[in-house]
Specification:
- The complex is a heterodimer of chains A (about 220) and B (about 150).
- The relative contact order of chain A is 0.19.
- With about 220 residues, chain A is mainly beta.
- In chain A, β10 and β11 form a beta hairpin.
- Chain A is about 0% helix and about 50% strand.
- With about 150 residues, chain B is mainly beta.
- Chain B has a five-stranded antiparallel β-sheet, with no helix packed on it.
- Chain B is elongated and about 50 Å long.
- Chain B starts with a strand and ends with a strand.
- The chains are: A mainly beta (about 220), B mainly beta (about 150).
Chain lengths: ~220, ~150
C-alpha cells in the first residue's frame, strides 16, 4: 500500500449468491440456507474503529466486539465483514480544461465471514422416503428432507432448479413413471422445520427401467 | 494491509490472510470528441489494476462494479462501455499467463499455482461529437469474497 487509504468497515448479512456457497448442494439441485431472517450476528457485533485512514505501510488493529444478547438460543450465528478501501484522494488529471480527460479510480471491497458459536454444534441432513404421483404429463415427486442442526436451527431451506424450462406434452401412458432420465422442473417451496421439497419432473426419455428408491402414489 | 483481531468472534485465520488493493486507476487520458478510445485490460500503462493475494488452494469470488457513465464536476456525462474481454486475470508467478473474462459477471477464482494475481480492467469511452470538455471521473469497485 503506497498511498493514503480511507477504510470503512461494515457488518452485513450475506447476499443470496454468497449464501449459496454455504448451502448443501444436492445435484442437480442446490439447497441453500436462507440467511435473511435468522442466524445473523451482524446486529450485535461491532467493529472498533469503524472508519479510519491508513498511511502507507502502516497497520491498524480492528477489534470486533460481540455483545451477544442473553436470550439467543444455542447455535451458529454469522455475518460478513465488509472492508472497503479507496485512495484518500483521486488521482490528479492533467490541468487542461479545454480537453476531455477521463480517468477511473479504484475501490476495493473485501468480504470476510465471521462465525459466532454458542454451545456445541451438530448438523445432519436426513431424507425420508420419496413419493411420486402422476400429474398430467408429469410425475410429481415429494422428497421430505429433515435438517437437524444446532447451527442452522430453523432457517428455511430453498430449492433451486438448473433447468426451469416448462414441460412439453408427453403421453402419460407412454412409459408410466419408469423412466431413467429426467429433465427437472422444481416448484419453489419454503418450509421451516421439515421442508417438503416438491419436485416436478418431466420425462425426457424412457427406457422402461424402474426408477430406484421411488414409491408411487396415485 | 491491516490486522483483524477477534474478541469472542472467530474470523478464520487462513481467510484473514487475503490481501487486496487497487494499484493503478483506469486511465483514458485526453480524448477527442466523436472518437472512441479503448483500453485493453493487458495495457500495462493505462488499464486499471487490482492486486489480490490469497493462499494457494484458496478460492475467492471476484465481482466488479463498473460505472456506465462518467461525470464531471458540472454533471456532464460521458458513456463508458465494457466488452466480454474487458477484464483479465494475470497470474504473477507464471509470468505471461493472462485470462480475459467478462467484467459484467462474477468470477470464481481458485489459487492453484500462485498466491498472487492481478485483476486488470479496460474499457471504451465514447465521447460524443461536441462533448463538453472537462475531467470525467468514476469509480470501479472490486468486491472480493473470500470463500475458502
Amino acid at each position: 500500500m503506497t498511498s493514503l487509504q480511507s477504510i470503512t468497515l461494515l457488518l452485513l448479512l450475506g447476499a443470496p449468491s454468497a449464501a449459496a456457497a454455504q448451502g448443501a448442494s444436492i445435484a442437480p439441485h442446490a439447497v441453500v440456507i436462507d440467511d435473511s431472517t435468522t442466524g445473523s450476528a451482524a446486529l450485535w457485533i461491532t467493529a472498533y474503529p469503524r472508519r479510519f485512514t491508513l498511511p502507507p505501510l502502516a497497520r491498524q488493529t480492528v477489534r470486533l466486539l460481540a455483545h451477544r444478547p442473553q436470550e439467543i438460543t444455542g447455535g451458529e450465528y454469522w455475518a460478513r465483514l465488509a472492508i472497503t478501501t479507496r485512495a484518500a484522494s483521486a488521482p490528479a488529471l492533467v490541468s487542461d480544461t479545454s480537453a476531455i480527460q477521463v480517468g477511473l479510480t479504484l475501490e476495493v471491497r473485501t468480504l470476510l465471514p465471521i462465525y459466532h458459536r454458542k454451545g456445541t454444534m451438530s448438523t445432519s441432513l436426513s431424507f425420508d422416503g420419496a413419493t411420486a404421483a402422476r400429474l398430467a404429463d408429469s410425475v410429481a415427486y415429494r422428497l421430505p428432507i429433515r435438517a437437524s442442526s444446532s447451527a442452522w436451527r430453523s432457517r428455511p431451506l430453498r430449492s433451486h432448479s438448473r433447468s426451469p424450462s416448462p414441460p412439453t406434452a408427453l403421453s402419460p401412458t407412454a412409459c408410466g413413471f419408469e423412466c431413467a432420465r429426467w429433465q427437472d422442473r422444481i416448484t419453489e417451496t419454503e418450509a421451516t422445520a421439515v421442508p417438503p421439497l416438491a419436485v416436478t419432473r418431466r420425462r425426457a426419455r424412457c427406457r422402461g427401467v424402474h426408477h430406484p428408491g421411488v414409491r408411487q402414489s396415485r | 494491509m491491516f490486522l483483524l483481531l477477534a474478541t469472542l468472534v472467530t474470523v478464520q485465520h487462513d481467510e484473514a490472510q487475503a490481501t487486496v488493493h487497487g494499484q493503478q486507476g483506469l486511465t483514458f487520458g485526453i480524448n477527442l470528441p466523436g472518437v472512441n478510445r479503448t483500453i485493453a485490460p493487458t495495457d500495462a500503462v493505462n488499464a486499471g489494476r487490482f492486486y489480490v493475494r490469497h493462499r494457494v488452494g484458496g478460492q475467492v469470488r471476484l465481482t466488479l462494479s463498473l460505472p456506465t457513465s462518467l461525470v464531471t464536476g458540472g454533471g456532464t456525462t460521458l458513456k463508458v462501455t465494457y466488452s466480454a474481454t474487458s477484464a483479465a486475470i494475470r497470474i504473477i508467478s507464471t509470468g505471461a499467463t493472462t485470462t480475459t473474462f467478462d467484467p459484467g459477471s462474477a468470477r470464481l477464482f481458485s489459487y492453484t499455482t500462485s498466491p498472487d494475481i492481478y485483476v486488470q480492467i479496460g474499457g471504451t469511452v465514447q465521447p460524443k461529437p461536441g462533448q463538453t470538455s472537462g475531467s470525467y471521473t468514476g469509480t470501479i469497485t472490486l468486491t472480493v469474497a473470500v470463500l475458502l
